[in-house]
Amino acid sequence: MANTIITRFPPSPTGNLHIGNIRTLLFNYLFTRQQGGEIVMRFEDTDTQRSSKEFEVIALETLTALGLEYDHGPFRQSERTDRYVAALRQLIEKDVAYVAEESEGEPGKHIIRFRNPNKKITFTDVIRGEISIDTTDFGDFVIARSETNPLYHLSVVVDDIEMGITHVIRGEDHITSTPRQMLLIEALGGTVPIYAHLPLIIGPDKKKLGKRHGAVTYQEFKELGYIPAGIINYLALLGWHPSDDKEFFTKEELVNAFSLERVNNSPAMFSYEKLDSINKHHLLQLPRDEYLAHLRQFLQQHSFGAWLLDHPKFELLVDTVLRERIEKFSDVLVMIETGELDWLHQLETLDATELVWKDTRFEKVRGHLDHAVALLSESSKWSAETLKERIWAYAEEQGRGEVLWPIRFALTGQKKSPDPFTVAALLGKEETINRLHNAVTLLK
Ligand code: GLU
């Protein structure tokens, strides 16, 4: 095991992993895999009031979904109390810790304090450089509530020593824990690991990323229809950037390109727009079958999207319209909700004046539509390309807007929609001709 890099995934199962936790796990993962090291998974569940098995299960599912594999564990701190108690005893025997009267709370109750040597602790953080902290301010800090009830820092330190952790990569909110933990490691005769404290993730308002900014847990992102490849790629760029301008990475490419030295020490601003564009890139990389399967599965969870799923031209719609538009699967739900796709299964009564391009006369518009009906009726093959071939010469001759606008509007009843050929292909011959006829009638 000599020289092997060992890192840790140490979530507290007190809630669902949020994007900051996941970014930390990802950076541990990328660093460790690149270095050929090993990852220890352990749940820091010493807070028995707030910890729950349910969150453990979800955390493990999240790691699996995101492809963040570990090599050892999962361990649970709640099952390792005897080790912490033994360490505590050792510290008391060496007189670097002592039993003291609780100063606040219940009188007569005892706690265990660490005998602080009150010195300046200096360490070199891989990301932030040399950091010096005077530990005098901490006083003789409490490390256990009783001889059998060790507290957080002691458990972490005992685990880090026993598990042979060589690199502690964690959020900068833990930076103040580092000197206390270093003092404890020294007192227990362990080797101080290398530390790398990752920058905070902030929202556009420069405040710590939280619920009010939008989705923050993996489950929330999943519900919005983001895929693991997109999430991983985006999170890797939160605080880290490659040496070139490359933006799109697979997980394997990240493992190759990543380095802790290239992690910034200034806060990383979360951008939902950037996440969207990266997610879209990865969606477009999916083979067609997989894409359709994902989208179907997604839509199945939302009953109001059922009609779309049942639409006979669903696959054609995906190929010609949706794939180009969708950044995350929930974008389709928004398109359904805003009525943008209504023309696919129903057409509202049209307002005749809307059929008119600029100041073309009604008669002329009617003539164009009649002509389009004639041209399209003859078409035996019904695809966007063939329909375009049929109409295009006429549209060029008469003016594209003047011909294509009324056709498109007659078919969709909407001012914005895909081009008329794509729309006609999706509606099918009969429905297209019908709608064009109806528009002609309306103009009489
Ligand atoms: N359990 C801590 C957390 O979830 C991790 C602390 C550490 O990395 O040392 O924030």
If you had to describe this structure to a student in words, what would you say it looks like?
The protein is of the alpha/beta class. Among the domains are: 6-201, Rossmann fold, CATH 3.40.50; 347-443, Arc Repressor Mutant, subunit A (Orthogonal Bundle), CATH 1.10.10.350. The chain has helices at residues 19-35, 53-66, 81-93, 152-162, 177-187, 218-223, 228-236, 251-257, 272-285, 288-300, 306-310, 314-325, 330-337, 362-377, 384-398, 400-412, 420-427, 429-442, and strands at 6-9, 38-43, 72-76, 97-101, 110-114, 120-125, 129-134, 142-146, 149-150, 167-171, 194-198, 201-202, 268-269. The protein binds glutamic acid. Glutamic acid (GLU) binds next to loops.
Nutshell version of this structure?
By secondary structure, the chain is an alpha/beta fold. Among the domains are: 6-201, HUPs (Rossmann fold); 347-443, Arc Repressor Mutant, subunit A (Orthogonal Bundle). Helix content is 46%, strand content 13%.
Summary tags:
444 residues, Rossmann fold, 4-stranded antiparallel beta sheet, Arc Repressor Mutant, subunit A, 3-stranded parallel beta sheet, single chain, binds glutamic acid, alpha/beta, 18 helices
Outline: elongated
Spans of at least 5 consecutive residues whose pLDDT stays below 50 are: none
Count of extended strands: 13
Main beta sheet = 4 strands, antiparallel
